[in-house]
Amino acid sequence: MPVVRGKNIDPLFTAEQIAERNRALAIEITKGPTKDLLVIAILKGSFIFAADLLRALHDTGLAPEVEFITLSSYGAGTVSQGVRIVKDIDSDVKDRDVLLIDDILESGRTLRFAKELLYERGARNVTLAVLLDKRVKRQENIEADYVGFECPDYFVVGYGMDVAYAFRELPFVGIVTGDA
Ligand code: IMP
Ligand code: MG
């Protein structure tokens, strides 16, 4: 099992599995709404997935504009949980097809917020691509249009995702299982 900074990391999805899924997702995406396509990656967690998925999209012939939005959740209890914009996009989304990219769809609050925001701003279609779908944690009535993998109910790290600011740089998705 890989050991990273003194922790055992149990690989859940390997770099090879992810690369293969990204190629398949890109082909699925070409069959959806892609007119004047704007891809928006939700930072920070999606940055590696977005970079790889965009290059897979390029291989299909799509040439999207790329933007970034930084969103943050606040509130930890069962009440008053919300999402706020830390840094917004610069582009106008009016009448455009938008593909939102995120690392994990969990409660659904982040993606529901982002999707509603973009429709309020006049986007024509907003579709969602996520690397991982942690379905058992869902609180909102929202589904992704493109899902890399169904994710078991573990806290995962790597491939952009962190725990306490660490492990984003791992080329695979794994579970921290303890001290090495
Ligand atoms: P939600 O769908 O609004 O609950 O938010 C999902 C967000 O929480 C993702 O975009 C991640 O940034 C973060 N997140 C959820 N589960 C995990 C995990 O297992 N590892 C790392 N980040 C996670
Ligand atoms: Mg996130």
Automatic annotation (TrEMBL):
Its cofactor is Mg(2+). Its EC number is 2.4.2.8. InterPro entries: HGPRT, Hxn_phspho_trans, PRTase-like, PRTase_dom. One of its GO terms (molecular function) is hypoxanthine phosphoribosyltransferase activity. Residues 14-162 form the Phosphoribosyltransferase domain. This is Hypoxanthine phosphoribosyltransferase. Pathway: Purine metabolism; IMP biosynthesis via salvage pathway; IMP from hypoxanthine: step 1/1. Belongs to the purine/pyrimidine phosphoribosyltransferase family. It comes from Rhizobium tubonense. GO terms for biological process: GMP salvage; guanine salvage; hypoxanthine metabolic process; IMP salvage; purine ribonucleoside salvage. It is found in: Cytoplasm. The keyword Nucleotide-binding applies. GO terms for cellular component: cytosol. The keyword Cytoplasm applies. The gene is hpt. It catalyses: GMP + diphosphate = guanine + 5-phospho-alpha-D-ribose 1-diphosphate; IMP + diphosphate = hypoxanthine + 5-phospho-alpha-D-ribose 1-diphosphate. Keywords: Cytoplasm, Glycosyltransferase, Magnesium, Metal-binding, Nucleotide-binding, Purine salvage, Transferase.
